[in-house]
What we know:
Layout: E1 2-7, E2 13-18, E3 24-28, E4 42-43, E5 46-47, H1 67-79, E6 83-91, H2 98-118, E7 126-132, H3 143-149, E8 151-159, E9 162-163, E10 174-175
Parallel strand pairs: 6-7
Antiparallel strand pairs: 1-2, 2-3, 4-5, 5-8, 6-8, 7-10, 8-9
Amino acid sequence: MMLMSRWLPALSFVAVTLFSQGALLAQEAPQPASEPARTFELEGNELKLPSAVIFETGTDKLLPESDKALEHVKAYLEAKDYITLLRIEGHTDSDGDDQANQTLSEKRALSVARWLVAHGVSCTRLMPVGFGENKPVQSNESADGRAANRRMSFINAALRGRLIGGMPADGGGMVAGDPCAK
Length: 182
């Protein structure tokens, strides 16, 4: 008895057994379990996350609760290889010194970029940028508003090497550093 395997044009795996009497039996082999297809939601050019990116208060140290969101960003870049530049934006609320908030937002953006690079994303596809308190999404007058303003945003900046919509790659923020630097 001889066993042969082949891929058919329909890409379903079929095992074919050829018996010595000349009879042919074809049977579909069980399909390996695969991960469900991942979906990604965009609002404009911004990737929406399944959860927040969380840092230790007042620092650029990522907390483990951020892994789910950052794995989502990594999977997005793996699935969308035509996105050649993703801008990682760090934002803060207006509490504290303006310059300290700017610096913190830059450090956090760079920290996120380095996490992605450490997990296999090409550093050349990432641009970490800090905006400090300059782009609030809500009023800083309430605790809820300040919480909403402390965020990371992931914006498609270039597709197939071309900037999107005539915007500068940095989106008007301060480039935080080179994620390729060791």
